[in-house]
Amino acid sequence: MILKGTNLKLSFGGLVAVNNVSFEIEEKTIFGIIGPNGAGKTTLFNIISGVYKPQEGKLFFKDKDITNFPTYKRARLGIARTHQIVKPLSELTVIENVMVGACFGKKNYNLKQAQKVALDVINFVGLSTKMFTQAGQLNVAFKKRLELARALANEPEILLLDEVLAGLNPKEVDSMLNVILKIKQNGITIIMIEHLMHAIMKASDYIMVLDSGEKIAQGSPQEISNNQRVIEAYLGDPKLAMQLVGAK
Predict the structure, then answer these.
(1) Deepest of 56, 91, 110, 138, by most Cβ within 10 A of its Cβ?
(2) Which parts of the sequence belong to the ABC transporter domain (predicted)?
C-alpha cells in the first residue's frame, strides 16, 4: 500500500468539501477519481499534495503519517502533481521549465543534473521538438505535456493528474493516454481525476467515485460502470451519464 487516507474531512465555512473519505491505493496502479462538478475531487487532490490540511482524518504514505507534512516535504518524499489549469513559467523555455521541476524536486539536483533529467523527460513525453520554445507560445496540448514533464522531473513515486486530458482533441487524448500508460509501466503510481469516461475507464485499475464530498463507490471500471448509484450521481450532467453508461 503506497497511499492511504482514513476518514478525511475538510470544510470551507459551512460547505463540506470532503466528508469522511477513506481509500487505499496499491503501488504501481492507476487509481481514477470521478464525480460530478463540485464533488470534492480537486479538494481531495489538494489534501493529498499538502495544499490543504484535513480537519479530520489521516493520510499515510508507505505507512508514514504525512497528514501534517507541508507540500515541499511531500514532494521530497515523491508525490508530484499536475494542475487542472496549466501553470507554466511562460517566459522560460520548455527545457528550463522542466529543469525547475528537477531542481526543486525529490533529489534537489544541481543545474547539470537537472538538465540531463529534463532532456530525458522531454523526450519521454514527446516534447523534444519544442525544447527551446517559450512555454507561453505552446498550444494547449503541448502545455499539458509540459505540465506532465515538469511533474515527472521530480522523479515521483506517486503522480497526481488533475484533468490532464481536458481540452484535448480525440487524437491528442489517445496520445496522452499512451504516455500515461507508459508512466505506469515505469513503476509510478498514478492517481487521476478525469471527466472523459471512456479514457478513465480504459486507463484505471480502480476507480473511486465522489459526490457532494462523499465517497459513494469504489471498484473496477466494470463495477463502476454498472453501479446504479454512480449513474444516478451523473444524471445532473446528461453527457457524463451517457458516457458512463456507454463505458459498459
Answers:
(1) 138
(2) 3-237
Helix (H) or strand (E) holding 230: helix 228-233
Is 66 part of a structural domain of the chain? Answer: yes
In a domain, 116, yes or no: no
At 180, phi and psi to the nearest 5?
-60, -45
pTM of the model: 0.92
Q: CA angle, corner 98, sides to 95 and 166, nearest 5?
A: 110
Mean residue pLDDT across the chain: 92
Instruction: Confirm whether 123 is domain-assigned.
Output: no
Any idea what DSSP says for residue 67?
T
The three state secondary structure string of 158-181 is EEEEECCCCCCCHHHHHHHHHHHH
- CATH number at 47 reads 3.40.50.300
Phi, psi of 145 (to 5 degrees): -65, -35
Average pLDDT over residues 29-33: 97
**Residue 139, pLDDT above cutoff 80:** yes
Cβ atoms of residues 162 and 10 within 8 Å: no
**242 within domain boundaries:** yes
CB atoms within 10 A of CB 187: 9
| Continuous H helices in 79-191 | 94-103, 111-125, 140-152, 170-185
Per-residue pLDDT tens over the stretch 44-100? 999 999 999 999 999 999 999 999 999 989 988 999 999 888 888 889 999 999 998
Cβ neighbours of 63 (radius 10 Å)? 8
Number of domains comprising the chain: 1
User: Can you read off the three cell numbers belonging to residue 189?
Assistant: 503510481
For residue 36, give its domain range: 1-78+191-248
